[in-house]
Amino acid sequence: MAKIRVTIWNEFDHEINNERAKANYPEGIHECLAKALKADDLEIATAWLEKDEEHGLSQEVLANTDVLLWWGHGRHGDVRDDVAARVAARVQQGMGFIALHSAHHSKPFRLLMGSPCDVRWRENDDKCVVWNVNAGHPITQGVPLYFFLEKEEMYGEYFSIPTPDELIFISWFEGGNAFRSGCTFTRGIGKIFYFQPGHEMYPSYHNKDVQKVIANAIRWARPAPERDFQAGAKMAPVVEKAGK
After folding, report:
1. Cβ-based neighbour number of residue 69 at 10 Å
2. Residue 49 predicted with pLDDT over 70
3. Is-contact 46 71, C-beta < 8 A?
4. Which pTM was predicted?
5. CA-CA distance, 42 to 207, in Å (whole number)?
6. If we measure between CA atoms, which residue out of 214, 222, 219, 218 comes closest to residue 36?
7. Residue partners of 218: CB distance under 8 A and separation at least 6
8. CA–CA distance, 33 with 101 (Å, rounded to integer)
9. Would you place residue 228 in the very low, low, confident or very high pLDDT band (cuts 50, 70, 90)?
10. Given pLDDT bands bounded at 50, 70 and 90, which one contains residue 231?
11. Are the CB atoms for 155 and 120 separated by under 8 Å?
12. Region 120-129: what's the mean pLDDT?
């Protein structure tokens, strides 16, 4: 089976301009994930906001991407509208899309959801419990019933997204908030997974359970094999027989 071609996209701003974020991810979140997800069946590339004038997401790059991971937080507005529309169109055509943490407010995700995607939030070093509520799903294989993140940015309901196809994780924060922290969607023939953990001020992407979830999600979101179908082809005639 061919390798899954993965592109990890990151703003790569906080890790340069914030010392705490830099301490967690000295080479950037994209490089942390690229190293953590390295596997024989994955071909991983990285891109970031200021890589080039198209943010590293040219038509050619996207045409050769099976699954795109997107991390964003503070510079959603700096992503070109035409590039965001290009990403959303590729998802409709079958590219998998994994939106990480504040990528719920990214332009591609909001285009695909057709909603504001707003959340309640609080950066207060909250302890987080991530509950696996869909134990039979491919994304949760090898993931325990629950796991802890000692500190994470609180995201809480109401989360203004369309009703997910599937609810995979629910997170509880010690301040009392709960959040639909793992959700799947389908747009066109593309699979989408939103996963909440990953604030740059905390080392969440060094957590083995978080890494396992993302690795599983990549394999789940890979495009389905192409079908033997040609648009506009004539169907064979339906032959009806009279009843006895």
Report:
1. 29
2. yes
3. no
4. 0.88
5. 20
6. 214
7. 4, 6, 37, 42, 67, 69, 96, 98
8. 13
9. low
10. low
11. yes
12. 85
For residue 135 the two structure tokens come to 């134990």
- Tokens found for residue 59: 């038509």
Q: In which element (H, E) is residue 128 found?
A: strand 120-132
Joined tokens for residue 67:
């699954």
Report the half-sphere exposure of 42 (CA within 13 A, side-chain side). Answer: 24
C-alpha to C-alpha distance for 113 and 240, rounded to whole angstroms: 42
Task: Give 97's strand partners.
Answer: 68, 192
Dihedral sign computed on CA atoms, order 225, 62, 93, 215 = positive
Is residue 89 exposed (0-12), middle (13-18) or buried (19+ Cβ within 10 Å)? middle
Burial letters for 228-238: b for 16+ Cβ neighbours within 10 Å, e otherwise? eeeeeeeeeee
Give the largest Cα separation in the chain, rounded. Answer: 81
CB 45 within 8 A of CB 56: no
Q: What value does the mean pLDDT take over residues 106-117?
A: 92
Do 216 and 139 form a contact (C-beta atoms < 8 A)?
Answer: yes
Residue 183 has pLDDT above 90, yes or no: yes
